[in-house]
Automatic annotation (TrEMBL):
Residues in ABC transporter domain copies: 2-235
Swiss-Prot/TrEMBL keywords: Amino-acid transport, ATP-binding, Nucleotide-binding, Transport
The name this protein goes by in its record: ABC transporter ATP-binding protein
GO biological process, one term: L-amino acid transport
Species the sequence originates in: Nonomuraea glycinis
Superkingdom as given in the UniProt entry: Bacteria
UniProt family annotation: Belongs to the ABC transporter superfamily.
A GO MF label: ATP binding
C-alpha cells in the first residue's frame, strides 16, 4: 500500500531524515517508535506532503503503486492518505456533529465515511453529537479526530502519537478505537512511545533513530525487549 524509498528531509542545512525505507501493507497497524527528536513527526509530515515549507526532501513515496512524491497534500488526501495531528484539531466552539461535518467530504476520495457509518462505528460520538468538542474525554476527542479524517475518505491514517499524555484507561480506549478502525478495513501508521501498548495494538513496529530506520520489530520482539526499549526511549 505505502512504500517509502530513500526518504531524506532537511530543515535548512540540518538533516532530519536519512534515507528512510519502510512499507505498510493494507490492513496493518504499524507503529513508529523512537526517542524525542528521532524524526517521527517529520516522517509523517513528509508522507502527507507537509514538509515543503520547512526544507527540501529527497527519495520517493508511493501509495497504491502510484508515485505520490511530488503531490500536494490535498491530492494525497484524495488518494486515501489522512493525517491525524497530535493536537487533534478539534474546534472547541463546535459540537461533535459540527466538527464531523466541517471537513469537506472528499467525493473524489476512495471511500468517504458517511455520518451514519461514523455513528455506527463509534456510538459514543452519536450519544455526544450535540456536545461541544471540548466537553469530550481525551479518548472521545481522539475518536472524533480519527472519525473526521475518515470522513475525508482516508484509507491510510497517519496518527501522530494519539496516546500522548493520556491516562492508562484512555490509552486502553484508544487501543479499542484503533482496533475498530482496523476492523473497518483502514490501515494505520502511528507514532507510539508506549511500546507495551504498541505491542497490544499493532502488527509491526519500526524503530527510528537519528532520522534512520534502524530496526523492524514484530510484537514478540517488542515484548521480549520491552525493558531495553523503554530504557532506550528514556521512558
Ligand atoms: N520546524 C523545525 N525547524 C527546525 N528543526 C526542526 C523542526 N522540527 C523538527 N526539527 C528537528 O528535526 C529533528 C526531528 O524532529 P521530529 O519532531 O520529527 O522528531 P520526533 O521523533 O517526532 O520527536 P518528538 O517526539 O520530540 O516530536 C529534530 O532534530 C528536531 O529538532
Amino acid at each position: 500500500m505505502l512504500i517509502v524509498d530513500g526518504l531524506s528531509a532537511w530543515y535548512g542545512e540540518a538533516q532530519a531524515l536519512r534515507e528512510v525505507w519502510m512499507r505498510v501493507d493494507e490492513g496493518e497497524i504499524v507503529t513508529l517508535v523512537g526517542r524525542n527528536g528521532a524524526g517521527k513527526t517529520t516522517l509523517l509530515r513528509c508522507l502527507m506532503g507537509l514538509h515543503g515549507a520547512h526544507g527540501r526532501t529527497a527519495g520517493t513515496i508511493s501509495l497504491f503503486d502510484e508515485d505520490i512524491t511530488g503531490l500536494a497534500p490535498h491530492r494525497r488526501a484524495r488518494r486515501g492518505l489522512g493525517f491525524v495531528q497530535d493536537d487533534r484539531g478539534i474546534y472547541a466552539s463546535l459540537s461533535v456533529e459540527e466538527n464531523l461535518l466541517l471537513p469537506p467530504v472528499n467525493k473524489a476520495g476512495p471511500e468517504p465515511w458517511s455520518l451514519k457509518r461514523v455513528y455506527e462505528t463509534f456510538p459514543a460520538l452519536r450519544e455526544r453529537r450535540r456536545f461541544p468538542g471540548t466537553k469530550l474525554s481525551g479518548g472521545e476527542q481522539q475518536m472524533l479526530a480519527l472519525a473526521r479524517v475518515l470522513r475525508t475518505g482516508a484509507r491510510l491514517l497517519l496518527c501522530d502519537e494519539p496516546t500522548e499524555g493520556l491516562s492508562p484507561l484512555i490509552v486502553q480506549q484508544i487501543g479499542e478505537i484503533l482496533r475498530e478502525v482496523k476492523a473497518a478495513g483502514v490501515t494505520v501508521l502511528l507514532i507510539e512511545q508506549n511500546v507495551h501498548f504498541a505491542a497490544t495494538v499493532a502488527d509491526r513496529h519500526y524503530l527510528l533513530a537519528e532520522g534512520r530506520i534502524v530496526e523492524s520489530l514484530d510484537n514478540d520482539q517488542v515484548r521480549e525487549r520491552e525493558h531495553e526499549l523503554l530504557e532506550y526511549l528514556g521512558i
